[in-house]
Amino acid sequence: MLTCSTVRVSLRLSPHTFPIDPSLPPFSGLAGVQQLSGIFRTAFPDIKMVFEDMLADGDKVAGRFVLTGTNTGSLMGMPPSGKSVNVTATGILQIQGGKVTETWVNLDTLGLMQQVGAIPAHG
Hints:
Blueprint: E1 2-3, E2 19-20, H1 29-43, E3 48-57, E4 60-70, E5 84-96, E6 99-107, H2 109-115
Parallel strand pairs: 2-6
Antiparallel strand pairs: 1-3, 3-4, 4-5, 5-6
């Protein structure tokens, strides 16, 4: 199991890299990745990412990961809830010339919003 708390990961991003996740605002390049990271680090200062699976084929790397943390900061305008979250996600990185050129990520945004109490959970 690979965790961001035990392994420092450094990605070389193409200046035109952009994450593709319809549930998130559009971001591009290193500045966009830093902005997106900042949103989550503000909302969840203790955030941890654990990679549960990682596969590579050709110019693509795919992974399944889990984000955990406690919502002690504002999340996109919502006040902190103080609640802990455990959110799953999958992603694919395209790598060309040693740099990440495109990403596709699907984050369980509904589950995240339910866990922080922004929308009611079913069941």
